[in-house]
Amino acid sequence: MSADAELTGLSLIGGQPGDRHDESFRAYHPTDGRGLDPFYFSASDFEVDEAVKIAAAAAPVLAASSGAERTVLLRAMADGVDAAADALVERAHLETALPRPRLTGEVARTSNQLRLFATVVAEGSWVMARIDTADSGRTPPKPDIRSMLRPLGPVAVFGASNFPIAFSVAGGDTASALAAGNPVIVKAHPAHPGTSELAGRVLTRAIESCGFPAGTFSLLFDAGTRVGSALVRHPLMRAVGFTGSFKGGRALMDLAASRAQPIPVYAEMGSANPVFILPRALRERGESLAAGLHASFTLGAGQFCTKPGLVFLDTPEAPFLAKLRSLTANDPGFALLSSAIAKTFGKGLQERSVLQTAEGQRQGAGFAAHAALQETDYAAFAVSPALHQELFGPSTLLITNTNREQMFAAARALEGHLTATILGTEEDLREYAELISILETKVGRVIFNGFPTGVEVTHAMVHGGPYPATSDGRSTSVGSQAILRFARPVCYQNLPQDALPAELKDDNPRKILRLWNGAWQTP
Ligand code: NAP
Question: What is the pLDDT of residue 6?
Answer without folding.
Answer: 86
